[in-house]
Amino acid sequence: QVQLVESGGGSVQAGDSLTLSCAVSGRTLRNLDMAWFRQAPGKEREYVSAMRRSGGYKYYADAVKGRFTISRDNAKNTVTLQMNSLGPEDTAIYYCASSSGGVILSAVSSRNAYNYWGPGTQVTVSS
């Protein structure tokens, strides 16, 4: 069983940066494909970014490309999402997700591809 716990959320001003972390336990991070999703009030949960277990492949939603960076530290079993140039449209609960079975390229943005989820961390960006 994989446990995921997000941290680093908070309230910031537009243009600020935040770094979210996802602590992974129950399984070695190097054996997991990882992703970040977010859900704004009244909206569906949407894909933000993903990273293959090898660490060499990173993917981003168009809305965050060039502003967000996903990374992993296998020694610390932690995945990080660095978020820069935040805007009010980034306000949401951010969720860390993992897949133990491997995620094919065409499915990296699909919620159904991930079988473990954290409880989420709130990010609020005011203008």
Question: Would you mind describing this structure in some detail?
Answer:
This protein is mainly β and 127 residues long. 0% of the residues lie in helices and 48% in strands. The protein has no helices and eleven strands. The protein has strands at 3-7, 10-13, 18-25, 33-39, 46-51, 58-60, 68-73, 78-83, 92-99, 116-117, 121-126. Strands 2, 4, 5, 6, 9, 10 and 11 form a seven-stranded mixed beta sheet that branches. A four-stranded antiparallel beta sheet has the order 1-3-8-7, with no helix packed on it. The radius of gyration is 13 Å and the shape is globular. The model has no long low-confidence stretch (mean pLDDT 95).
**What structural class do you assign from the helix and strand content?**
mainly beta
Beta-strand content bin: over 45%
How far apart are the termini?
Answer: 40 Å
Number of helical segments?
Answer: 0
Shape: globular
Which H/E pattern describes the elements? EEEEEEEEEEE
Stretches where pLDDT falls below 50 for ≥5 residues?
A: none
* DSSP E strands, number: 11
- Average the pLDDT over all residues and give the rounded result: 95
Please estimate the helix content: under 10%
Rg over CA atoms = 13 Å
Major sheet characteristics: 7 strands, mixed
